[in-house]
Amino acid sequence: MSVALSVQALGKRYGELQALADVSFEARPGELIAVLGPNGAGKTTLLSIIAGLQEPSSGSVSRSAREVGWVPQQSALYGKLSVAENLRLFASLEGLADPAAAVAGMLEQTGLGERAGDPVGKLSGGNRQRVNVAIGLIADPPVLALDEPTAALDGAQRGRLWEFLTRRRAAGTTVLFSSHHGSEAQRHADRILILAAGRLVWDSSPAELIASRPDCDGDLEEAMLALLGELEPAGAEAP
Amino acid sequence: MRSLLGKDLLILRRSRLLVGVLVLYPVAIALLIGLAISRAPQRPRVAIVDQTPPGETIRVGTQRVEVSQYARQLFDQVDPVSVSSRQEAVEKVTSAEVLAAVVIPADLAARVGSGTSQGELEVIYNGDALEQSLVNSQLRSALAQANLGFSEQIQSAAAQAIDALLQGGNLGVLGAPENLIGLEQIPAVLKRVIDRTPPGPDREALVRVADFADFAAQNLTVSKRVLTAVGQPIRIHSTLLHGRRTPLNTFAVVVAVTVSLMFVAVLLAAGAVAAEREENTLARLLRGLVSREQLLLEKGLLGAGCALVVGLAMLGGVGAFVSLQWSRAGLWVLAAAAGALAFAALGVAIGALAREVRAASLLAFVLSLPIALLALVPAGSVGAGVYDVIGAVSFVFPFKAALQGLDAAVNRSSPGLGPALVHMAGLIVVFGALARAGLRRGQGA
Question: CA-nearest residue of chain B to A14?
């Protein structure tokens, strides 16, 4: 079984605060992994270390920052530039051999071809997020990390985004995303990682977690809350 | 880095209001400061009440000086408003139509002509403490100039009277004898008489008179020189210790250009760095697409390049009206480029420390303007301790170094371009390091 991403004993400390502690997992190509957990559990810290935004205090990530596409929660785009100009800039910065072809391909994949000349500042939240994701994927990285990608989107926009990410998964891209919505993970993820107080407390498929909590009526969110409730004393003791 | 620079220039081109403000505002401020420095202070507007009778003169020996000469001298030193009475003068001062009033009393000629008392003027002024201080100092200066001019008139009349005594002739004074003999001619005339006079008491008396006339003529010649010396006892001879004297108008040009360089470079560089953070693109760029150093260099070059264009355009434009040495244009570019880079380094440091564009712009503005004004405080205008503090503050910011560099390039002023370039290079390194630390701090948090 090939490994697209390997995270080993990852730890991150901000002064006295242990944001991440001894997190290890591996991801296969084309796997769609949801990183779940309550606020402050370390989801964003984990993804930002994998994406190369932060250095870990301990442990390692098998991929360099350039091999991981990054999609921050808030769109990281130039509002005065058009969709195509934003894509072209990041294609150039990525050092792609044919930036124009990469831009054309990404416009087609995201369905933004008709809006290519529009300034990003004038796009809707959903379209902005599509450009945000497109920039994360412009260099066709083997791994894509998304921090709460659907947080600011309405239902229809979420649907279009998942459709797109599902296509990327099918193309072999490993996708990691953090989310507050258990339902999204249940519907789209192959695997869930649950963090609590910086520790990885669950790593399985959504179905396995649901199966382990028969009293949760097949609801992943309730199963996760039950799990976290059981772990609370351990979480409180976590350094 | 070229892609990033192209992106910033494209964004700048689309931000017409920002570009307009970035160019027009510093140019306006720079021109105002330049004008304030280069223009001589306005002459104070003063009401003058001349109560002396028309045509009245002061008699100096055989000569007469018109009293109206004094009023004329005073008129030259101020922006005069003639009024007919003291009451009218008081009203004009009260209504702030004039800063002050000077009353020349009717007895001025009598008092000056008496030789025993001085003439007295009445000065009337109003206003708050600052205005009083300003009026007082300006009027004192104006009156001193007028006094000097008037005393020169009197001295000239006295010298003419002495000349008349020494050389004789027609004095042109009513009642004076015609073709009067001069004191200098008396010894020669007497010598001829003495030669024809036999020895005896008459001849001895004539010899004594001739000796007196000779002695008196010599002493009167000396007294004329003394009169000149007393009239203006001290002459001023200026020596500039080193360098070349900078004309005030070309220095004002240098100040104006330096202010423009500062505003454009600092505001643009600070804003460009802060904008990356505000648009959330900083993290995306710094995760391997560009290094911190490349990003800061790009923003610095953006700010410095735009500032250089504005600064040189301004220098060239103003050069059409002020005499500049175009043969030194290469040095202008060098000094302006170094100054622009030093300001841009300060700008990127501000941008890296601030979290958003508005905060960065405000900080850049709040920091730059006082630093510029402090750097223009002349030595001797404040206490030594305060001046040392101002000097230390000015040293750690680029304005003074940039000003000195540009002044040296344009006006060949001392201490020359070299030390200023070294100073600016040091500041670029320091602010660059500060900016790098600021970006690292922002990323780590």
Answer: B445
Dihedral in degrees, nearest 10, Cα atoms B148, B150, B155, B161: 180
CA distance B262 to chain A (A): 26
Fill in the amino acid letter for A237: E
Backbone angles phi, psi at B105, to 5 degrees: -75, 160
C-alpha to C-alpha distance for B434 and B349, rounded to whole angstroms: 6
pTM here?
0.70
Cα distances (angstroms) measured from residue B199 to each of A227, B51, B207: 150, 63, 11
| Res B238 pLDDT > 70 | no
For the stretch B98-114, pLDDT in tens is 888 888 888 877 877 77
Query: Among B281, B443, B444, whose Cβ lies nearest the Cβ of A78?
Result: B281
- pLDDT per residue over B396-435, tens digit each? 899 989 998 988 888 777 778 889 999 999 999 999 999 9
Interchain proximity B284–A81, CB inside 8 Å = no
* Amino acid at site B116: T
CB-nearest partner of B280 from A51, A75, A80: A75
Contact: B10, A51; criterion CB under 8 Å: no
Write b or e for each residue in B229-265: b if 16 or more Cβ atoms lie within 10 A of its Cβ, otherwise e: eeeeeeeeeeeeeeeeebeeebbbbbbbbbbbbbbbb
Asked if residues B301 and B342 have their Cβ atoms less than 8 Å apart, the reply is: no
| Amino acid, single-letter form, for residue B166 | L
Q: Are residues B14 and A80, on separate chains, in Cβ contact within 8 Å? A: yes
Distance CA B273, CA B289 (A): 16
Q: How confident is the model at residue A140 (pLDDT cuts 50, 70, 90)?
A: confident
Test mutation, A90, A94, A122, A135, chain B, max B CBs within 10 A: A90
